[in-house]
Amino acid sequence: MAVNLKFLALTLTTADAEKTYRFDQPATVISGPSGSGKSSLLMLLKHAVGGDAILTPAVRDHVHSVCAEVLVGDEHLALRRLIGEAGSNRVDVLDPVTLELRESLIIRAEAGQITLSDRLLSALGFPRASIPVRREGKSAKANVTFQALFAYVYLEAIYIDTQIVRHQQTYFDGMRRALFEIIFGLTDSVLLDLKQRSAQLLTDMKTKASEHDNVSNFLRESDSRSDDALRAELVQLREMLSLAERALGDLRSELEESSAADAVLRQELRRAVASARDASQEVEAARELLEARESVVAQVELDLLRLERSASAIEKLSPFDFVVCPRCMQRLEGRPVQEDHCIVCLQHDPPDESVDPAAIQQTRAALERQLQDARGVREADGQVLAAARDRAQQADFLTTTLRRELDVQTRDIVAPRFDAIAGSSARVASLGASIDAVTQLRDAWARARSINQEVKDLKATRTRVQADVKSRTLALAARGQLVDDLSQQFFTLLAELHLPWVRTAVIDPKTYLPVIDGNPFESLQASGGGITTCVSIAYSLALLEFGLTHPDVLVPSLLVIDSPRKALGNNPDDQERGNRIYDRFKALADAYGDRVQLIIADNDTAPIPSDTFSTIPLDYNRPMVPGVAHPGPEHVHRAEDGYEA
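Structure (tokenized):
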């Protein structure tokens, strides 16, 4: 049987008033002239259950919130949602009796949070499935939502004569078909998972194939050598490297042997260099000592010369009394001079021994002995310096000789080996770099092979998954008969409406859309909106009745129809066709009673009275939004005023 989904009431709250609309009968007709708010009332039902409803300015400006009392499966709930951006992304689930808050649920999915859709689908007992979709060329998953399922039960006026469950909206059409298959049991979670996996494998396979092509193209463009050629070249390079490393080892061994042969000579050279250094230090020390001796001799000679000059001056000048200054020739008589001071220079008179000839002679003799001794020491130090210089010259000569001998030996034996070692080392390094370059190219080829193998593995896995999809599809194929039965019921309904030019009508088993006289639904547009409206209503009624009579078909028991007589016209045949539509509504409501619910918005009341029908009349004096004065019929044609039904 159909899954139970029913609206019991809808309460609108404004700043000044509150209005409740009840849906107590199996069928409810919301009637009234254009602009009285019929479509807005249906949109608010959609808004209350989390849908993206089109709300008029009158609703947006005056209605604060709506609360829908609903039966979902076996649960009785009250769903309250605000109007406007603030808070409209959540729906409060209330106790229907006390109106106490039970939980507040988000509408759009967020990681780790339960949505209103999750809650309602669980209450309906509807399978929670993810369907494979493609977004921006990549495979992805889209969760089945209650809002998507609601598109099957709500025929909006804007779509009723142009689309079947919004099938022309590309982004939604995949969800529409998946929902049909879930409703009729043509698929299940296992099959959906297999299809999702197959789609993901196809995406991965294309990605890896593209990566393989990019790597292969890069290799072909950057280096013309194939992987086999690189493998052979790598073997050759490694052999050459082995030979070069062996030759380098031999050269280093020879160098070590030649180095052992001149070790004695190097030792002698080190000793000679040390001796030359010591001799040079001795020469420097002797030179410094000799310079000190020469300073002493020069000082004694200077003292002796000073003594001679002083004695000569005393001898020549002491007999004279100066009466005039010998320099400026001024007279000195009467000049105040202290006792024992010179009348000319005013200094103390020298002691007696300084002018005593005997004392002077004694001092002269002492200075001459000191000078003779100093000259003797200087001579001896000069000989020491000369001997040190001789030893230094001999040490330098020995060092130079040993250096020349070692240079000759190095030039003839060691240097050639050093050159050979340098060349051999460069050869080893060059071969190593070549091996690295070839190895990198081979690694890239190995990566290309690995990616190619991944592509093959993905292809093999997808083949197995596709086989599982086919097997699972075949297991469910028997349920395809349900689509054929639905087609027959759909054709019967259309025949009852007496549509002109319609000879055959089926439900396409692949698209699940109506096909009339072998033509798709879109081709009926040329026949007029009244024809397409009838086809759309017949399709939805066929689904609803089929769900009511088949326990394993999960069609919701609710059908909301906005403007069922849209574009039918006013001639007798069109009016009769409208009456036949309502006859079908009445037959459905009479037959199934509380098991079904029809909510219909129409400009006129139901053309046939029935106890199973209730009416919500709206007019310009009683508009849908409570407490808001309607501008009147003279403004109804202005859709921008927001009162269009």
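Residues 357-476 form the longest helix (120 residues). The longest strand covers residues 5-14.
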